[in-house]
Amino acid sequence: LGGGSSGAARCGRCALLARGQPAPSVVPTMAMKYMGAYLMAVIGGKDSPSADDVKAILEAGGIEVEQDMLDRVISKMDGKQAHELIASGHGKFAACGGGGGGGGGGGG
């Protein structure tokens, strides 16, 4: 009944999870939390936030920090200024491990 490729996609996700790897849709969401915390530190006055700055923000929000994700964001932002990346276009943040969100809901 129905279904087609959705069952195969679910099986692929299950295989990734069984190997201890996050499903592809999970990684961009997680990375955005880290970029969001990084940008919050920038708004708070840090020109180049450290891993500890970002970790403190995430933990204050009750988010368990995964060191490899944190290190990836800090590494990708090293030597870059957030306001310059924003001014040159949001596409530049793709290199920092962000992800696409869903479309907005329709008004009514």
What does this protein structure show overall?
The chain has five helices and no strands. With 108 residues, it is an all-alpha fold. The chain is globular.
Q: Quick summary of this structure?
A:
With 108 residues, this protein is an all-alpha fold. It has helices at 5-18, 26-43, 51-60, 67-77, 82-88. It has five helices and no strands.
* Morphology: globular
Could you tell me the number of beta strands? 0
Q: What structural class do helix, strand and pairing data support?
A: mainly alpha
User: Which range does the strand content fall in?
Assistant: under 5%
Low-confidence stretches: 1-10
Helicity range of the residues? Answer: 55-70%
Largest sheet: none
Helix-strand string = HHHHH
pLDDT averaged over residues? 74
Distance between the ends: 34 Å
Distinct helical segment count: 5
Rg, alpha carbons: 17 Å
